[in-house]
## 1
Amino acid sequence: MRVHLAALAVACTTLFACPATAHGPTPQKAELRTTIAASPDAVWKLAGDFAGIGAWHPLVRAVKATGGNAPGAERTLVLEKGEITDGLDTYDAATRSLSWRLNTENAEALPVSFYTTTLTVSGAGAGSAVVWNARFYRGDTSNFPPDELNDEAAVAAMTAFFEAGLEGLKAKVEGK
């Protein structure tokens, strides 16, 4: 009986110790804000068009979209290193907010494996405030991802994508 209990104790320790030492990816976050010298309605006219991101985001080379601004709509963004596909989750013109998620990943084009993101336009003095935030996972979700697909690469890529987009939106709306 002692041998069986000792073997059981070793087996249990081994079984439960492995998950404690393993880890997967943790969700990362990015949030950027900008102010635009235009009314929220003028900014929303561009930013609120789910299929229209190519008109103001300089990193988006082309957009193929279906479904308009209805939840469930999809768009494929053509980026420098490939395509990714987003699906629209929510669209609320009254609060000037839309949220979408990555449906089809391409870690070469954008080194993340999944994201959910929200873009919101609100009034800010005589202009507008635009907030773009996301929660996402790195491009390689294994325990030891290569540098180009790790958490830091994912944060850097999402931040750069948001920065370029917000700068492009601001320039387009302000006519610069």
Note: The domain at 27-174 is CATH 3.30.530.20 (Alpha-D-Glucose-1,6-Bisphosphate; Chain A, domain 4).
## 2
Amino acid sequence: MTEIETVTDEKWNAIIHNDVSYDGTFYYAVKTTGIFCRPSCKSRVPNKENVLVFATAEGALKRHFRPCKRCRPNGLRLPDEEWVAQITEYIDGHYHEPLTLSVLADMCHGSPYHLQRTFKKITGISPIEYIQKKRFAKAGDLLMHTDKTVMEIALTVGFPNTAHFATLFKKRTGSSPTEYRKTAGTRQGGSL
């Protein structure tokens, strides 16, 4: 089993200050993202309690952490398909939160431009389109299977503005959320 090192104050300071002089002396992995980085990585500073420290990149790989797209520890790269799978998994679990390209890029240690281009190349749609698709699929399910109000559903799927949600929902489905709910009994599992 690979030894995990202690996150000392010295190492933590190297991480939060992106100290290049510590590159090659240790690597840090973030449990919540499944990614490992060099100390000099410019990605958002993780919560200390989510950080594991390894002496080598191989140690992090053995513990099933993936190399960061931004800092490429030891020249390792995460294949695009795996990276996009990681992003979609994150979106699937957080679609109800305010998600932007910048938030996603920060989470997955890449640039917004590269994320947009790679995601679209692999999936055929943009990350924002994927988020909308996920939100509307969940909204349709809630409309068909719950008695939540349209406002509650809008908030649940990540739309703080009910009128905006209703407008986009009608544009996407051809019916308002209320009309959609009324015809739910005649619908046979159609997807949004």
Note: Residues 9-75 form a domain with the DNA Methylphosphotriester Repair Domain fold (CATH 3.40.10.10).
## 3
Amino acid sequence: MNDFIQACIDANEEIAKAFEKGFDTSWYEKTEVGAGGDVSSRLDLFAEEVFFKHLSSFGEIESEESGIMGEGEIKIIIDPIDGSSNALSLFPYYGTSVARVNEEGILDAAVVCNLANGDLFIKSENEAVLQGKLFSNNFHARHTSSASEIGLFEKAYAHPLLVAALDKAGLKFRAPGAIALSLAYAHTVEYVLFVGMFRIYDFAAGLALCEGLEVIVEQDYVIVSKDKSVLEKIEAIVSALEDE
């Protein structure tokens, strides 16, 4: 485990330990619109502070909350809390997302953590994605499923016509509300679909974990699947609705 990956793990473990004590009432307070365009909560800012403490020595940090922080040739892109609305509602599907881009502009490391259950996904340059748990030094090849029955459709609530079209096509889905986590689980579900504005904070780390899968990235939608025919079927549905 290299120093950067270990620092990411250490940050996640510090945040997870804080969560074990219960959510501080101050974390629910809303502050101002962050760099990513959403209103930041004190929870987001708490997690951002922890990541800055652990990662600032490695390079410049670009956070969804505060934008550019620190300096350095290496860029570290973070979403301090992926699915913060879930977290503040105590719905167990929320985590963190970290991606590192080296001096040549190549994304060479990514860490996504599900703080709700401790699932941890790591990707280092030229190495396969590994999966493990927080507070454990045991990592293994990521889990996969050859009999996936559902996909994950992020921001489904904003696209009722697409929801109806997927249902008509027999493409079941859930809409859990944390895109980096959903991409981290892309090997175990039938597909992952996101329709909306592409923001680097949401996708940098998650897409790095999707190696070996079929991936389409457009300005206003992202589709990932193990099955090329499923990918093409969904793309045709999305394109048809855009043309109407």
Note: The chain has a mean pLDDT of 92.
## 4
Amino acid sequence: MNWLKEVFKTEKPIIAMCHLQALPGDSGYDQEKGMEWVIEKAREDLHALQDGGVDAVMFSNEFSLPYLTDVKKETLAAMGRVIGEIKSEITVPFGVNVLWDAKASLDLAVATGACFVREIFTGVYASDFGLWNTNCGETVRHQHAVGAQNVKLLFNIVPEAAVYVEQRNIREVAKTTVFNCRPDALCVSGLTAGESTDTQILSEVKSVVPNTVVLANTGCRIENITTQLSVADGAIVGTTFKKDGKFENGVDYNRVKAFMDLVKEFR
């Protein structure tokens, strides 16, 4: 697990989500405000997160609802433009997540210089987005083909809004995923964005893969973060950093700082 501290320069890192507004082609895209507004909102959130003390940021097309598992070219192009426009202002390690397309995430990481991606790399699911299949072997070969060998792969093993076609115990999923796929980290989630990750599930996962990084992936709040970090090796945090703790809102610097002050005291 040495890579975690090498990349994030701290134990128990907090990776903050920088949710991009709806992009061209998305149902919620605001054509009147255009891409300049999308870029400015991303810039505002980035600075609030960095100024508040987070250890890293991850850019995702969170408002591209409903999500695709084969993302359109215009989405990838738009995300590349947003990150490119504000990259000189990024002062912490950053990653990308193109929802929900693992190869596209790797392509964006190479294009922008991101050092990690989070995705659904393994499994077959019944989901809100239809029957959802993956091909980890093909994706990892694509990773090497595009020169993304040094990009860390964060495997989400409890996909939001989806269940395995064949029900499997989370301990089995974690163990076989690590054995077969060699992930850099496992991300353990709640049911939806902002839904707490069960500490018991975190403990179960960590117990069977003690030498693999395990991250709390959703629902980390100031009320539970020290409990989560007592088990997890770090956390990915989005909704709780928003104004009033609401998914739809922009990032609130004061909420970020209060959260990170507590994390730093815990560390």
Note: The longest helix spans residues 34-52.
